[in-house]
Amino acid sequence: MVFEPDEAELMHNGALEMLVDNPDIDVLTTYCNIDLLDLSSSDDEKTEVTDVQNLIYESAGMSKEFFFSTTEAGLAYSTNNDIALTMILGLRFAHFFTTLLNYKFENKKVRFKLIILPLSYYNSSDYTTRARDLATLGYSFLTPILSTGLDQTNLSNLKMLENDLLELDEILKPLQSSYT
Fold this sequence. Notes:
Radius of gyration: 31 Å
Structural class: mainly alpha
Number of helices: 7
Order of helices and strands: HHHHHHH
């Protein structure tokens, strides 16, 4: 049985009057048949959940791709937004630990600076490629190596093993570029 809105309102108000003084009731739900309609359309067709979601995001003036990426471009944009938001906190951590390290261990010859790279599991390949391209132009060659997860000590030890002990630099020569 489906009631008209004015009948449902009368039944709801009657239920409220009966139960208003009951200390054991906090929330009251009454029987009604409710359809959500897109008020911007001219017809009275039923709307689906996806239509309702789209209507909510459109009324807010944004795309649902910000939160529920269904395309590659949307996923890339969402990932970049997440990294940008997280890096605000990362920069604060870097500043805090830089200050702490310099307070504890700074002297006239050594001053520390902690840098947190804007890396995630999803953008490490692109970041490493861009850092490598910059290294070919003369920028830091440590940044692409660090973005792969290898630290300076292991890099130094690995290069010593390859070049001095195994003499791989004589056998395996890198391709020539403006940087090498």
